[in-house]
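Protocol step 4 of 6.
Sequence for Peroxisomal membrane protein 4 (Canis lupus familiaris) entered exactly as in the expression construct, tag removed. Do not edit the line below.
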Amino acid sequence: MAVPPQLPALLHAVNALLRKRRYHAALAMLKGFRNGAVFQDKLWAILQATYTHSRNLACFVFTYKGLCALQSRVQGDTYQVHSFLAAFIGSLLVFGDNNNINSQINMYLLSRVLFALCRLGVEKGYIPEPRWDLFRLFTAVVWGLVLWLFEYHRPTLQPSLQSSMTYLYQDSNVWHDISDFLLYNKSLPSK
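Step 5 output, structure tokens:
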């Protein structure tokens, strides 16, 4: 298939536009959008993480249920503290290793627990009932904090979050031509 004669001229014009500093901010926004929409092929890592996650959850549920049943049998009844103690011990055994999977699970749970504790505080009367939906404010604070941390205190963020944010917010500021603006995140090595 022959290349249309206008294609080299069009590529030259697009690449010239991409190099103009006066358009850099708008083009960085476009490349950031592109980086957010692209899914890199990480199938094997995803499968391994899924297996580890499901194995850990299975082991934890087994341990938790066993410890709850044991406490109930020993004390002759079920008490609220049983679930806390069983989960406390089970998590030490199963989720206690500081690795990427356990870290993700624990951070996910922390956010859910904080939400639930706020709701419980409202339900019990310790926190006044909000007069309006606070979700937009919550979202704004979370995103404001994470981008501030990324821009000015990056090492405090978890490595996988740093990596994702670097890809989205830093790599989108750099390109040389249409190949690393649109097709690839970074320039391909020269042969």
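Step 6, annotate. Residues 43-75 form the longest helix (33 residues).
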